[in-house]
Design a protein that fits this description.
heterodimer; A: about 425 residues; mainly beta; seven-stranded mixed beta sheet; 32 strands; about 40% strand; B: about 400 residues; mainly alpha
């Protein structure tokens, strides 16, 4: 009886306390939709900067809209038609058109041709500036990079994510009819602009991969008739082949996070195993020695583990082992075949290609194989690569038929915002590089 | 759990353990050998039987050798590569159809210097990769030991030339019959046997899916994001574990009033009573009631009737309509924030009073992003005033909203 009285007393006290103070509610539902933003054309501070200001503004807006996380409000909806960079922002005018964020900027070109870009980011509904205004200075040739830098800052300040706009992608550019494709290694901005070619189209090239600092590229070439791995310096376009062993065929190379070692597959006598090779002295270390085919290795961001594909169980599946080799544990157990695993820069996910029931898909799973999610599906999707911040995945999608051709697509890790990278044209095998300094 | 509960649990566990393992540990009685009729022979006859036994009757049966451990394949690794060619000065390939790229870089591209300092791989010391040059050691391939027949110390009487001794004699089978421990009778067709068909039960595989529906399958015309389905609301009883300041302030640690029994000035018995429990229980109840009453009276309760469940839900829905988490980082999507706001009588939030009270499950930077999204939600959807009963203004003039994105995270 006394216990009951005690419990009643405590309940009474709790209820009494709950009725005091502010009203408390908990919100667990929300919406997932693009955040609306406005980017009035950056103010040209000199006549020579008029066209450049428009171009920078468009690139910034395209970067933000291209993420799928933002939606630009067209300039025709603006109430305040002109916003000078130095003048205060009339927040009610922007709230009236439901703009949640705004970017203002100014561009100047001085007598020596140097370009200066200034910008500020505002949270319209709170009436505050997000961060502080910044100023970038560069050459006229580098205006796109400056625009990407501005978009990176806006993206990072609003979402809290690390950015990825000022980055490059290396890929295989393809031309010619389907039966006689000519391939060459190309490099471009993440959005497909500024395409440049690093090799000629006289031989088949595969699997270009950026170094962690973006200054070198590993790729596989068939110019000698069998696969051979080359390391190419991006700035000088100079290259050298890696000595993967006499009478052997090396392919599927990828840099280690330290940039000094590469892991690759080596075919020898009909058996394919994984090796690492020092890029400084060429010393090799064998990681696997199984009668099955082990290939497509990818390091974890900390360099301690390697994920790869193997058919040791009868079908292609994903395995994880220590970077020094040893016993591997299988992490893929779903239906179908898994291939081309790539570890996320965040270290929490592994992207892969999955083939099941005649269709291909790009998916992600936790590093222990749990929480598998497929992000795309088509007759032929393959070869995922992560953006520097681990938020977006690029991959190759090839259409079937006589006129079928590969293209580069990107998708958010939520499975939304699937986009084709039109500027890259007929291209395949993208590999995303790091964020540029 | 009470003491009785513990005893009951231990007893049940012991009983179950005995039932599971007890009989298993008991040695099973050995099978009884069948009793056979024997004939008694003399010692001379026995010796005579032994003499003509020139060889053992039990010839060793060659067992299938155990699967040999796969010998480690000798590394065909060639000798260590000769001294690595010095880092060559890269040569530009001839016949490049495109000029060498000149990666433009603004001289001062970033006002904020990136902390990353890319290591120059060429100048870095060579990684101490263990060269497997010493590996070509030829692994020892163990030769299979020849089976050693066990010496027969006592030759049994040989009633028949069969190679095996068994409790029951077995006739020598046909030479092409496989020897096995269990006899398998040859199947013979029975002509007048009745064919019994098994009843078929309709079955179906368990429902499952291997693919999630993504944009690629939905084939949306544009890549723009669409609003997601709203997850089921969390039961309102669950609250953020982060204590709100007001809540802690409303429950002061009031000192317990003096125990009336301690203050009882009747020192008739100087030795303390070893069992004063009933009196203390009654005091505890009285103290708890007193504290509850004191706590309720200490803070001024809002006047008027409280908001109904429907009114609270209406406010919750109104705010959630503008709580857009689509642009939040994954870290911010894991951060729960508690936001306080004061309200005007017309139901509009006083924007300058919106403040972050607390957060959990995320770093401060993520909490700032989550707070910004919550603030936008309050302002956007409250711009024309929330639908709140004016007569209960005292109840909602100050609101604490917990934004819990647990069900909105990227899956």
């Amino acid at each position: 009886m006394r216990l009951v009285l005690l419990v009643m007393a405590l309940c009474w006290a709790t209820l009494a306390a709950a009725q005091q103070g502010p009203l408390r509610i908990e919100i667990t539902e929300g919406v997932v939709e693009p955040l609306t933003f406005a980017v009035p054309t950056f103010e040209p501070e000199s006549p020579a900067a008029a066209e450049l200001a428009t171009q920078v503004t468009r690139v910034v807006a395209a970067d933000l809209s291209g993420t799928g996380l933002f939606r630009e409000i067209p300039a025709t909806s603006f109430i305040a038609q002109r916003t000078r960079f130095a003048s205060p922002v009339r927040f009610p005018d922007w709230r009236a058109i439901n703009a949640q964020a705004m970017v203002t900027g100014a561009v100047n070109v001085d007598g020596s041709g140097r370009v200066t870009v200034k910008f500020r980011v505002y949270d319209i509904f709170s009436g505050t500036e997000l961060g502080q205004g910044q100023q970038l200075t560069g050459t006229a040739a580098g205006w796109r990079r400056m625009a990407h830098k501005v978009a990176d800052q806006v993206y990072s300040r609003i979402t809290g994510e690390t950015p990825y706009f000022d980055s490059r992608v290396v890929f295989v550019s393809e031309s010619g009819p389907k039966g006689n494709r000519r391939q060459r290694i190309g490099i471009m901005d993440y959005d497909g602009a500024n395409i440049q070619f690093l090799t000629d189209d006289r031989s088949i090239v595969l699997n270009p991969r950026f170094s962690p600092t973006g200054d070198r590229i590993l790729y596989t070439s068939y110019e000698t008739g069998f696969p051979q791995i080359f390391v190419l310096d991006v700035a000088s376009v100079g290259r050298r082949s890696l000595d993967t062993g006499d009478g052997s065929m090396g392919f599927a190379p990828r840099f280690a996070p330290n940039g000094q070692t590469a892991v690759y597959s080596l075919e020898q006598g009909g058996n394919t195993d994984l090796y690492t090779i020092s890029l400084a002295n060429g010393s090799r270390t064998r990681l696997t020695s199984a009668p099955s085919i082990e290939t497509a290795p990818s390091f974890s961001p900390d360099g301690r583990q390697i994920v790869f594909e193997s058919d040791r169980s009868g079908t292609q599946q994903l395995y994880v082992m220590a970077a020094s080799g040893g016993e591997a544990r299988r992490i893929s157990f779903g239906e179908g075949r898994y291939s081309t695993p790539v570890w996320s820069p965040r270290g929490d996910l592994i992207a892969f290609t999955k083939q099941t029931k005649g269709r291909f898909a790009i998916g992600v799973m936790r590093v222990d194989g749990s929480e598998e999610r497929l992000l795309s599906a088509s007759p032929l999707d393959e070869g995922p690569t992560w953006s520097p911040n681990g938020r977006v995945i690029m991959f190759t999608r090839e259409t079937l038929g006589e006129n079928g051709a590969p293209s580069i697509y990107s998708v958010d890790i939520t499975g939304r915002n699937l986009r084709r990278l039109d500027r890259a044209g007929t291209a395949s095998d993208p590999a995303w590089g790091p964020l540029q300094p | 759990m009470t003491v009785g509960g513990y005893i009951s649990t231990a007893g049940h566990v012991g009983l179950i353990g005995y039932l599971l393992f007890g009989p298993g540990f008991a040695a099973e009685p050995l099978p009884m050998e069948e009793v056979q009729q024997v004939s008694v022979i003399s010692e001379a006859e026995f010796a005579a039987l032994l003499l003509p036994a020139p060889e053992p009757v039990a010839t060793p049966v060659a067992l299938a050798p155990a699967a040999p451990e796969p010998a480690p394949t000798p590394e065909p690794e060639p000798a260590p590569t000769p001294a690595a060619e010095p880092e060559p000065t890269p040569q530009a390939p001839e016949a490049l159809s495109e000029p060498a790229p000149a990666p433009e870089a603004p001289s001062e591209p970033v006002p904020e210097p990136e902390p990353e300092s890319p290591a120059e791989p060429a100048a870095a010391p060579p990684a101490p990769d263990p060269e497997p040059s010493g590996e070509p050691t030829i692994p020892l391939t163990p030769t299979a030991p020849a089976p050693i027949p066990e010496p027969i110390t006592d030759a049994p009487p040989a009633p028949s030339p069969a190679p095996r001794v068994a409790p029951e004699p077995v006739a020598t089978p046909e030479p092409d019959v496989e020897i096995a421990e269990e006899v398998t009778e040859a199947a013979t067709p029975v002509e007048d046997a009745e064919l019994v068909e098994e009843a078929e039960v309709d079955t179906a595989p368990e429902a499952a899916t291997t693919q999630s529906v993504t944009e690629a399958e939905i084939a949306t015309p544009s890549g723009a994001m669409t609003s997601s389905l709203r997850p089921r609301p969390r039961p309102p009883g669950l609250a953020l574990s982060t204590p709100a300041p007001t809540a802690t302030a409303a429950a002061p640690a009031e000192p317990t009033p003096a125990n009336p029994t301690a203050a009882d000035p009747t020192p008739a018995d100087p030795t303390p009573d070893p069992s004063p429990a009933p009196q203390n229980d009654a005091d505890d109840v009285a103290n708890a009631l007193a504290e509850a009453l004191a706590g309720a009276a200490s803070a001024p309760a809002p006047s008027g009737p409280p908001l109904t469940g429907g009114e609270r839900d209406a406010l919750r829905v109104a705010v959630s309509r503008c709580w857009n988490v689509g642009s939040l980082s994954t870290e911010a999507l894991g951060t729960t924030v508690v936001v306080g706001v004061e309200m005007a009588r017309d139901g509009t939030p006083l924007t300058n009073t919106i403040r972050l009270i607390g957060f959990e499950n995320g770093p401060e930077a993520a909490a700032a992003q989550a707070f910004a999204a919550a603030r936008r939600a309050i302002i956007r959807c409250g711009v024309s005033g929330f639908d709140l009963p004016a007569e209960k203004y005292d109840q909602w003039k100050e609101i604490e909203m917990t934004f819990n994105p647990e069900q909105m995270r990227i899956r």
